[in-house]
Amino acid sequence: MQAPRYADVKVGDRLPSLALPAIDRTTLALYCGASGDHNPIHIDIDFARKARMPDVFAHGMLSAAYLGRLLTGWVPQQQIRNVSVRFTGITHLGNQPTCTGEVAEKFEADGEQRVRLRLKCSNQYGEDKLVGEAIVALK
What we know:
Blueprint: E1 18-19, H1 25-35, H2 45-50, H3 60-72, E2 80-87, E3 98-109, E4 112-122, E5 128-138
Antiparallel strand pairs: 1-3, 2-5, 3-4, 4-5
C-alpha cells in the first residue's frame, strides 16, 4: 500500500469510500463469534422484540470496525494515532453501510506531520449511524 504523503494531502480531500454489503443475520452471527459480543439483542429476534425493536440490529462496534477498515485502507495501521467515534443511529438489517472520511486539518505534533480526519458510517439512505475522527501521521 502506498500511503498518501503529507505534502500531497489538502484539507477537504476525501478518503476513498468503503461500501459494504447489506447487513444480514449471517454478518451479525459472524461478528458475534469474532468479537465475543453475544448480546441477544443482535441475534435473537424474540429478545429484540421484547425490547420493543422490530428485529435484531447490528452491533455499534461493527460499524466502528468498518471505519477501522476505511482507515487501514488509506494508511498502514502503525500510522494511526487516535480514533474516536460516537454512535448516532441503529444499523438495521438490510442497511448497506458506507464509510467515508475527509481531511479536516493538517498539523504537526510530537515531531510528526499529522492530519485530523472526519469520519462517518452511513446507510444507503444517507442516515449517519456513526461519526468520529481520527488522527493519522503522514510522511
